[in-house]
Amino acid sequence: MRDYLVRAQPTTTALTATQLVGLRESGKSWERRMGQLLLGARREGRAKQPRNPDLGKAVLGGEIYLSFPGLGDRLAARIADKIGDYIGQFDTPNALQCYAGTAPVTRISGRSELVIARRLAHNRYLGVAVH
């Protein structure tokens, strides 16, 4: 191995790690801010409930994202990021589930029947957010 490659490796690794930590923190702050936009206000008080009764009005489709069962504001913000502004592209909940790769797929051949719970071809970032 060349001498300059051996010397460059530790600094390159440190720089890459620093950049990855920065990206992670940036993503967390974006999720926090998007969650505030979905809720219409910051969470306040002991119960951490927003004081705005018009939830989801600041973001296009915000009411839909907040109505998903089991989603809080931060996870709804992540899913809103992965789906985009136009949630109407999914005609049915099953279409969204297929896009995320979480819809069960049944493969039948002769006497055998195989149900695959998670597809390989899907939006991986959305699949991680909903799984």
TrEMBL record:
GO terms for molecular function: DNA binding; transposase activity. Residues 66-114 form the Transposase IS116/IS110/IS902 C-terminal domain. It comes from the Bacteria. Pfam families: Transposase_20. GO terms for biological process: DNA transposition. This is Transposase IS116/IS110/IS902 C-terminal domain-containing protein. It comes from Mycobacterium [tuberculosis] TKK-01-0051. The lineage of its organism: Bacteria, Bacillati, Actinomycetota, Actinomycetes, Mycobacteriales.
